[in-house]
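Entry type: protein chain
Record version: 2
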Amino acid sequence: MTVRRFRSRPRTRRISPLLVGWLIAVWVALWGTLTVANLLTGLVIAVLSSVLLPLPPAHDGLAFRPWGLVRFVVLFVLDLVVSSLRVAWQALWPGRLPRNSVVGVELASRSDLLLTLTVLALNVMPGSIVIEIRQGRPTVLFIHALGADTPASVEAARRAVVRLEARVLAAFGTRAERARSTGTPGGGS
């Protein structure tokens, strides 16, 4: 009996039109003017970048839920306004410097992409910034929380991160990711 070895066909590299369009837009934005020359050089650079430096495939199994995304955006904007007002109040409070804490928060998500989205949303929020990520089972974020000087305020900062992650999972997480989440997306549901 002979053993036949099958050679796998070489993978053809597909160029993502969405990625090429995004790279062209970034190129034009960097140059600051929309000209035919900028568009053409952006196209050449985008295609060469896509062919010579291909991105690894994203196999995170993400799901897109429009209602979850709408809820995430609305509550995120509301959180931005509230945290901006809170930081402004702490900055303008006469004679009292706000105390801070470093808070560790365990995340439910195991996806790198969902972790990235959560960290980006946290870093945009005034009053908190992610200072360390320990990946493992579970992933732990360490955030610097402004004004978290009592056990109650530290716990409130921790709950805010868990709620934010739950909203990200409600918008983009798989069913399994959402089941692992302990937060309540959008303050209930």
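Comment: Confidence is low (pLDDT under 50) at residues 185-189.
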